[in-house]
Specification:
Distance between the termini: 88 Å
Shape: flat
Largest sheet: none
Oligomer: single chain
Radius of gyration: 34 Å
Length: 621
């Protein structure tokens, strides 16, 4: 049976495909560079150099193009996320250090991995550049052609070599269907962009308006802050109360959506690769079990090592079963972490917008600016790596717990030793209950006999003032020796709980697993905090709204200077000076926010005293 199963999985080991994605990756740099040059030629430079520059003949062409804004992009978020998902297979090769375009000594492996990452990034750069380009017609044609090329290459590889040596039938399809699905989505996306841009280019539809700095959800957030009374909220469902409550005034940036999509696909690929490795190890263990069985048959099960061999076979069988069963809970744990990290991102960003930094450790409340800028580049890659390694560690820990559960509960029942198992379990529970009961009894005795009575009936607890001091010192002396033994168990429980929580939360980059005072050692948490502060400083809705007001007012004044008879377009209504309007708005602001009066700086005290006298009488304004 072992030979048959192995033969079933090795259907197409020697298959030779006419197109190799690894080989095609190198040649894809040629069309990638061509697309980058075309888009760069169309991109205008904002600041032209002086005429004596060597490149003055280029004019204002060949501006710098960017794949996407990692900080402030809130449009086409899922398109960027799917584009990240198309790179998942190559990211997994980089993660396993299997993609090395150059052969160099061991000490230079870091540089080779850097070059490999740059090559993969350059190969997939056109997807992002075409999605973010302002020239929608040209970029849609180039993006569609490039996506179609990768789509055809992937289809050819799957169709010519569908099977493999680990999973057997359709192994290639199992590995590449997420990438194929992402490429198909990009094809539809670029086709939609072309159909939208073509009527505009032909003049059949008006040109799209210039994109505003202020997003719609950011404007709604500021409006919510300026409302005096919040509207009555409708009753929330069970999902909104217990799981997640959608906020229309908050949107995740493209970076977070891309991280979610890429991490999900990489986690799927990692689980498939792990299962392939498990099948390989399982075949080796099956061979080992067959040899053990042959030995038992030869010895007629009468040798002195027979019990040990039977226990080894049982351990192998239990381990294989537990490892397969724990794949599902380990994967669900990591998937839940991905969505929980998004919820924590929203919660932390809102607290930073409100000026609340108490949820951060003291030494993280003013991070370095340079470290924060680097953190925005590190976060996505580190989050994916933390999820993958976290899955493997969680899977190993859950498997160990499963083996312990099998040996402590299930196997004794199967071996007709249920009564002995229940007796031992009862003794363990009774011992633990007595120890915990004695600890609780110490607290009750201390509160009942060794604390002075409450000062008032409204107090929640007694004051921390000793009572019956002689009895207390005798109580403390005789329990000293017992607490030495109790401290040994408390120390072991501290170690076990720390290991359990540390391994369980290893994939959570938003929460440090270090002790208080050692959070700076946690590089993942450093990246998380730095990323939060970069987003806070660049996407704060109040700050963006203020910048939007400045930009629009500056543009209006510039337009008025350009227009010769601009005043003819003004309404015939009453006119107000800018100074009077500003003072009126200032008065309204101080009425709605009286606490700002004490913070306001004034040249003379007359205006301040007049406002303090006016405000109490203007409560109905």
């Amino acid at each position: 049976m072992l030979a048959a199963s192995t033969r079933t999985r090795q259907l197409n080991v020697t298959c030779d495909s006419s197109v190799d994605r690894e080989f095609f990756l190198h040649y894809s740099l040629i069309p990638s560079l061509f697309i980058i040059l075309v888009l760069s030629f169309l991109q205008r430079r904002e600041h032209r150099r002086q005429r004596d520059d060597t490149f003055y003949l280029l004019g204002d062409h060949f501006g710098i193009i960017m794949p996407l804004d990692f900080v402030g992009t809130f449009s086409n978020r899922w398109s960027y996320g799917i584009a990240f998902g198309a790179t998942a297979n190559k990211v997994m090769f980089l993660f396993s250090e299997g993609y090395q375009p150059l052969k160099v000594p061991q000490w230079a492996q870091a540089f080779v991995l850097l070059i490999g990452g740059m090559e993969v990034g350059l190969s997939y750069f056109p997807f992002f550049a075409c999605l973010s380009s302002e020239f929608r017609l040209v970029s849609s044609i180039l993006g569609f052609s490039y996506s179609l090329t990768w789509f055809v290459v992937t289809i050819l590889q799957i169709s010519q070599c569908p099977h493999g040596q680990f999973l057997g039938r359709f192994e290639t399809l199992i590995f590449y269907w997420p990438s194929l699905l992402c490429l198909g989505f990009l094809l539809c996306r670029f086709l939609y962009m072309f159909l939208k841009a073509l009527p505009i280019h032909l003049g059949l539809e008006p040109q799209a308006e210039e994109k505003s700095v202020l997003e719609a959800h950011q404007a709604e957030h500021v409006k919510r802050l300026l409302r005096k009374s919040c509207p009555q909220e409708r009753e929330k469902s069970w999902f909104q109360t217990r799981v997640y409550d959608w906020d229309p005034c908050f949107q995740f940036p493209s970076r977070m959506i891309g991280t979610l999509v890429l991490a999900s696909i990489c986690l799927y690929l990692f689980i498939v690769i792990e299962f392939c490795v498990f099948l390989l190890v399982k075949d080796k263990l099956d061979l080992f079990e067959d040899r053990l069985q042959s030995y038992l048959t030869h010895m007629n099960e009468t040798g002195t090592s027979t019990p040990a061999i039977l226990q080894v076979k049982e351990l192998i069988s239990v381990t294989k079963g537990v490892w397969v069963v724990t794949i599902l809970p380990a994967s669900l744990t990591c998937v839940s972490y991905l969505f929980h990290i998004l919820a924590c991102y929203r919660k932390h960003m809102k607290r930073l917008w409100a000026g609340d930094k108490d949820f951060l450790p003291q030494n993280f409340q003013s991070p370095s600016s340079a470290a924060s800028v680097v953190a925005i580049a590190r976060y996505s890659g580190w989050q994916i790596a933390y999820i993958l390694w976290g899955y493997l560690i969680i899977h190993v820990v859950q498997s160990l717990c499963g083996v312990m559960l099998m040996y402590s509960l299930v196997l004794p029942i199967l071996h007709h030793q249920g009564l002995e198992m229940l007796r031992g379990l009862g003794l363990g529970v009774l011992t633990l209950s007595i120890v915990v009961g004695l600890m609780i009894l110490q607290v009750w005795i201390a509160g009942r006999f060794f604390l002075q009575p409450k000062l008032s009936t409204a107090d929640k607890q007694k004051p921390l003032a000793l009572h019956n001091r002689r009895a207390f010192h005798n109580f403390n002396y005789f329990l000293f020796f017992y607490n030495v033994l109790l401290g040994l168990g408390a120390c072991l429980s501290r170690l076990l709980i720390s290991c359990f929580l540390g391994t369980w939360l290893i994939a959570r980059i938003d929460r440090t697993i270090m002790q208080s005072g050692y959070e700076g050692v946690d590089m993942g948490f450093n990246a998380w905090v730095g990323m939060l502060f970069v987003d806070h400083y660049h996407t704060n809705p109040v700050l963006v709204s203020f910048c939007h007001i400045l930009i629009t007012s500056h543009r209006d004044r510039k337009l008025q200077k350009i227009t010769k008879y601009w005043y003819l377009n003004q309404s015939a209504g009453p006119r107000f000076s800018a100074r009077a309007q500003t003072r009126w708005l200032l008065l309204q602001t101080l009425i709605n926010n009286p606490r700002l009066i004490t913070l306001r700086k004034s040249k003379s005290g007359h205006g301040f005293r007049e406002l303090t006298q006016i405000l109490p009488t203007c409560s109905d304004c």
